[in-house]
Design a protein that fits this description.
Length: 348
Amino acid sequence: MNQLYYTSKHSIFKQLNLEKRIILETLLKQGLPQTKIASIIGVHRSTISRELKRGSIDILGYDLKEKKVYEAKPAQVLANKRNLASRKNPKYLLEPNILKHIRKYIIKHKYSFEIIAGRMKYEKSSLRLSCSSMYNYYHKGILDIPKRYMPSYLWKNSKTKRTRRENIEQKRINMRPIEINNRLEPMHWESDLIISTTKKSPVIYSSVERKYRLIILHKLPNRNSEHVINLINNLEAKTNNNFSKYFRSITCDNGAEFQKYKEIEQNQRTTVYYAHPYSSWERGTNENLNREVRRFFPKRMSFKNISQKQIREVQDWMNNKPRKILGYKTPIECLKELYPEFLEMGIV
């Protein structure tokens, strides 16, 4: 039976559980005295005495006379009722629909418990549940959510370090100014391609603003660098030739699709920095958000039949998702305060 109470942090006595109550019942049937039973179970003899008074039940004997006997399972049920009556009701009982709303945000919106708890605090909700409380409800079965909907970021992929290749013409990530490295200035981006099944298959261009985690997703026919350059040209046109204001720098990996940095940087519209080979952690923001995209478009899934509209829906979900790093604001809410005109250009 799931118990919906929590034992006090300041308890100075040991409470009996079902296992110890079964031992108690067995030892009583063997005729052992209470002092000996207390020593075996590891509690004070007054605990045994009190348990027998509160946990014994009346039964009808063979002589048709009532007598008190101690049985472990009925005693456990009585103990559960006493504990429930002696403590405040769980918070979720104050708002009958709260668990239904949490379930909806996990399944439909793919939020985590941490985000839901943080958002409750940010919006100053009348009823606030902590992240640990929601996990307790989930593990006790009170919050019924299929496991497949629970986000999991526990796996880590350890990779062998390899020798770094250097191209002296490229600007390496260690050449980035401190305002980019420390996220002091907005509108600096990390870019990558999310790969489909084969080299010739469609891919998703992913670019993340480093400070506020705004993401741009676009479907491209394949990994050809010309498609990347054409996309950047289209983005520049949407900014009314203010590309350098909204895309101050782009940090990418060493894939062939990003090697034509002179064409990406043309007319000093931006500055391209390259992470070191086999060092994906140097673009950690992009890598982490790409993992969220993979929740919708998993590995080995072909992007051939995925439309830009579907990709845009994922982009909108990510840009309207509250994030702990932003004080549980959304990327859209943060950018709206600083660059409202950028959000009206049709880029995101």
